[in-house]
Amino acid sequence: MSYDLIAEIQKLKREKNAVILAHYYEDGAIQDIADHVGDSFQLAKFGQQTKADVILLAGVVFMAESVKILNPSKKVLVPDMEASCSLVKGSPYDQYLKWREQNPSGIAVTYINSSAEVKSISDVIVTSSNAQKIIEAIPADRPILFGPDQHLGRWLSKKYGREFKLWSGSCEVHVLFNAKRLHQLIAENPDAIVIAHPECDESVLAYAQVIGSTSRLLEEVAKNPAKKFIVATETGIFHQMKKSRPDVELIQAPVADAGCNCNDCPYMKMNSLEKIRQALEMLSPEVTLEEALRKKAQVPLDRMMSIAAGEPVSWPTAFVSP
Ligand code: 13P
Ligand code: SF4
Questions:
Q1: pLDDT tens per residue across span 233-264
Q2: Same domain, yes or no, for 133 and 161?
Q3: How would you classify residue 287: left for phi > 0, otherwise alpha for psi between -120 and 50, otherwise beta?
């Protein structure tokens, strides 16, 4: 069954001149049919640079929206329009706008895990893989508003010794890792290296030797000679880790409820090969954005791309409410 489905997807890809981009949290079978697999920054870049007519983003909707914002002439598809993110759901536009209006002199640094509307009232977008460069580029005398992920924001704020005003959102998957049980697991596996995504709570991050984006964690497993890793991020990433290091033992960091599979992101895991086939056949569901909104949301994304490329940028002096 799977063989035919994969052959059908490849055929549709050729017919429609489509490219498939997949996030590291997707099922292994989806990662294996993708033209590019990456973290959220890499996917935005691949999407911006591709010559294909159609981009199918096997990830979550905010990732596909970012590609559409950066490369509007392309048809951008998702396998399932319901594939959201708890950070997007936890940062409604009206409330985010109010927050910005209450802090007009602050620079709004917004995680890419946000809606296009929230991006449109932000000054710069960050991902876990470029956040450090971006924080370093913000003038030291400007206050920073950071949202919607409080854990990534708190980690960066401590790292740079800069006070951030934090939005209180979190990732429903990463907050489940449990520090007490992790402590116990480390005691049972003293030879293991603990690696964690910065969306985890600081009590979990305190145990990690390496904290970083999905691509950074993969890089660590690939290059670190250790034979055992405790991994505090979503389970999909194990697929590439096992490919690059079949010789190592990978242990999922524990959650409070030992019996649950709650480190599968329910949104990432809404996608399937069959939904990908259907989306390519029907050229739907398609991500569309009003041009006025798209243009406004492009400003902070372009600023992110420029800083990541080492180019100088200018900052607005104060927030002007739309
Ligand atoms: P990365 O940018 O590190 O891939 O993270 C995306 C994400 O959604 C983590 O939960
Ligand atoms: Fe959002 Fe968390 Fe899923 Fe990432 S893992 S897409 S942050 S809910």
A1: 999 999 999 999 999 999 999 998 777 767 89
A2: yes
A3: beta
